[in-house]
Amino acid sequence: MDLKSSHASPVLADPTPVNKSRLGVHSSLLPYSQTGTSFSSSMYISIPRKNKPGVPDDVRSNGWLDAMLSSSPPRKKLIMDMNSDAVVTDETADNAYASWMLKYPSAINAFEQVTSAAKTKTIVMFLDYDGTLSPIVDDPDRAFMSDGMRSAVKSVAKYFPTAIISGRSRDQVYKLVGLTELYYAGSHGMDIMGPVRFDESDNHLNYHSSTDKKGKEFNLFQPAKEFIPMIDEVFKTLVKNTKGIKGAKVENHKFCASVHYRNVDRKNWPVVGQCVHDLLEKYPRLRLTHGRKVLEVRPVIDWDKGRAVQHLLDSLGLSGRDDVLPIYIGDDRTDEDAFKVLREGNQGFGILVSPFPKETQAFYSLRDPAEVMEFLTRLVNWKEVNDGVAVSAASVPGGQREC
Ligand SMILES: [Mg+2]
């Protein structure tokens, strides 16, 4: 498998922007936009915080509303955006997906290719939660994974070191998954419960050891620890300020405050956006990111899911090794940071979960959580048949930990 191949063919960029600017403004909405180009970090431009002529500083004119409207577009609309003159039918959408899959093959169809790369290596499995292990649902509190999926993940963790990396708080995702065999990274990797590190000299303020209820040692790494009181304050303010908006739901993810607007009447979305926008004006060290029908307020720090993957690999003593194959499965824009780390480090590959074509740094694709479960199950079956070829999680220091 060529882990260095580039993806040159045109694909549809995710309409939900990854906002590099602190206020989360999509460049296509700015006067100096670069629409029509493929996604790159250079497309996201920081703008001055003060009003400029022609660019009033509110949600209607600075791109927030556009990003909110496009955060979960119907599949047909995505295809229409790709070719606005085309009459979109299911057949058109299917053809576009099939064409896209030539570049990002299904990890199930290309299973032999995957296992061929893994044959003499230790797989390390990284999994996003929402939209990857669980379906996307209207109420985030009800985004449950199926028993079948839980069983598949448990089996994967039996053979390979496995971590969940989620935008949710670590406690919340742990409750939803409920498996003690895994490592958990919450808040987009800003709250990592990982193995005891080999290199004790790498100790610092954001990093400390602890024990779980059963006395097992683990390490907690929180690179944005200093922001906890600030996020709590922001959470409380957002709860108060969105109180009158029916359907708005605010969550405190410890290192990130989220405002869900999936259940808010569309005509009130600008009100939701304005609430968050006005609040951010008072917190220059926080920024906005757009998720699926959710606005997220996060610290401005150089840390993301990619850095979390690297941290966990370091902690396991498995980074930079030719005999290790990290695999990351995720569906979200924030997962692209992890795909990118693996691609650029030529040390594994990402698998994007998406039912429609998207630009991605992943190597393979899967359509939905059902296909994720099928892939994980096949991987376990393959390992059991080939047992003894690769090193199991049990032989990796820190493996088979209990929370
Ligand atoms: Mg997700």
Concise structural overview:
It contains eleven helices and 13 strands.
What are its keywords?
binds magnesium ion; single chain; alpha/beta; Rossmann fold; 403 residues; disordered C terminus
Broad CATH class of one domain: Alpha Beta
Approximately what portion of the residues adopt beta-strand conformation?
15-25%
CATH architecture identity of one domain = 3-Layer(aba) Sandwich
Q: What class do helices, strands and sheet pairing give? A: alpha/beta
Organism: Kalanchoe fedtschenkoi
Family: Belongs to the trehalose phosphatase family.
Keywords: Hydrolase, Stress response
Function: Removes the phosphate from trehalose 6-phosphate to produce free trehalose. Trehalose accumulation in plant may improve abiotic stress tolerance.
What report would you give on this structure?
With about 400 residues, the protein is of the alpha/beta class. The chain has a domain at about 105-185 and about 310-385: Rossmann fold, CATH 3.40.50.1000. The chain is about 30% helix and about 15% strand. The protein contains 11 helices and 13 strands. The protein has helices spanning about 65-70, 75-80, 90-105, 110-120, 145-160, 170-175, 230-240, 270-280, 305-315, 335-345, 370-385; strands spanning about 120-125, 160-165, 185, 190-195, 205-210, 215-220, 250, 255-260, 285-290, 295-300, 325-330, 350-355, 365. It has a 9-stranded mixed β-sheet, with helices on both faces. The protein has a 4-stranded antiparallel β-sheet with strand order 7-8-10-9. Helix 5 (about 145-160) runs parallel beside helix 11 (about 370-385). The longest helix has 17 residues, at about 370-385. The two termini are about 35 Å apart. The relative contact order is 0.17. Residues about 1-20, about 25-55 and about 395-403 have low confidence and may be disordered. The structure holds magnesium ion (MG). The site of magnesium ion has 7 residues, from loops. The site of magnesium ion (MG) has 7 residues, from loops. Its cofactor is a divalent metal cation. Keywords: Hydrolase, Stress response. It catalyses: alpha,alpha-trehalose 6-phosphate + H2O = alpha,alpha-trehalose + phosphate. Its EC number is 3.1.3.12. One of its GO terms (biological process) is trehalose biosynthetic process.
